[in-house]
Structure formats: C-alpha cells, structure tokens
Amino acid sequence: MPLHHNDLTEGWLRTGVAEGMTLIVHSSLSSLGEVDGGAATVVESLLSVVGPEGTVVTPAFTPHVTDPSPEHHAVPDDELLRRRAAVPLFHPDLPTTMGAVAEALRARPDSVRSSHPQASVAAVGARAQEIVSRQPLGFALGHDSPFARLHDVDARILLIGVGHDRNSFLHHVESLTPAPRLKVRRFPSTINEERVWVETVDVGDDNGTFFPQIGREFEQHAGVRPVTVGKAACVLVPTKPFRAFAIARLTELLAAHQRDTAQ
Fold first, then answer.
1. What is the dihedral sign for C-alpha 88, 89, 95, 97?
2. What is the pTM of this model?
3. Which of 126, 140, 177, 202 is most deeply buried (CB count within 10 A of its CB)?
4. Model confidence over 145-177: pLDDT tens digits?
C-alpha cells in the first residue's frame, strides 16, 4: 500500500515535528517506500505539520557547478575550454542534485533560495526569506550562512532515511572548529558581463570519516530515538544542543587525527 499525505503527517508528528517549527530536511524518498504523489506529497505533508508559522528548508546544493578539471593550472587546451564552458552558471531555477524531495521543495513557486553557486539552500514558510537572505562565497555554511541562522532560530534537523553522513549541518559545525579540514571551491560566475572562474576556501568533505560517529554519539547522549515512517528510519535533532556537542566532539576527533597523521 502506498503512503498517503495523512500517513506522512502522522509519521512526522511521531518524530516530534510540531506546528511552528523550522526544519532542515535531509531525505531519501525511496527509503519511505511507495508514496502516492511522490516527493511533492512529502513536501506538502511537512508543510502541513509545521503550519503557516513554520518553515521547511532543504539543501539545494549544485555540485555540478564546478571546474571539471580543478587540478589543471596551465593554459587550457580547446577541449578543456569546451568542458569548462559547458558548466552552467548558477541561477535560482537551476535544479539541485540533492534528491527528489529537495528538488520538489526548490521547484515550488513559493520557494526562495540562497545565492551560493554550489551550496545554496531552498526554503518555504514564515522564516524562509530570513534563512536564505545572506550566504558568503567562502565558508558557505559558516558563521553568516543559512545554517547559522537555522541554529539561531532553534531549528530542527530531520533525517528521513539517511544518516549523519548526509547531515550538511555538520559542515557548519566543522567551520566553527579551531582547525577544520579545508578545500578549494571553484565555480564560474559573471562579473561585469564577463564569465570568470572564482576560487574560495571552505571546509573539506568528511566522506563518512567522523560525521556518522558524531551523529550516533549525540543521539545516544540526548536520548534521540529513530521513528519509522513508512519504511524509513527518521530522527529529529535540535540544532542548538547538537551544534554545541558536535563542535566539541569534532574538535577532539580532528586533533587526534592530526596527531596520528603527524607521527
């Protein structure tokens, strides 16, 4: 039997989602099983539960807006020029690759989106414009980012059928640690009607190294228990205590890793 709107709303209520809440949602549509109406029904059900005073946010990342050959620093040949020219410029209607639910929310006519070429978020609801209003090019998930504002408004992180390796809030956490892992972002932009390539520094990718461990430890520490919605294990995590816990724990893990690699 497929899941319907009412099945999902009942499930979100069991996870702890409540009216007026601001959510950042990471999800796998397929993990729920068959859903009547697909991703659009999932989005509608979430908006129904948080109500008109609530807000639903999803990562709307566009990792395909990137240099196809970042290691190439010499003068590009014709083939590389063609490949780089084929990389799209970011714009608000550019689809995200963060999954069907994220794309369904981004594509809604009432959705707004932050401006980062690779790490934007999309939002619908009472606080949507506030959440997406500013986003730096460097450390895109850092101090003055949508993720910082999600923390400040006491948002909740809802994981639907995914683990903390998909929890982008942990990149925000890492940006606040004393010695984060770093990477270079490179993406095309238009300045004075000229297409140019922009480089910025950001936190690196975890690739499952520490984020799943930190997420598990916080859930145990805070007594967070998964709730099954459809076929998906779902957890609801409060951003404020999670950020405080995760900054301290990730700082410890990164320091230990640096000591180990230095030996």
1. positive
2. 0.95
3. 140
4. 999 999 999 999 999 999 999 999 999 999 999
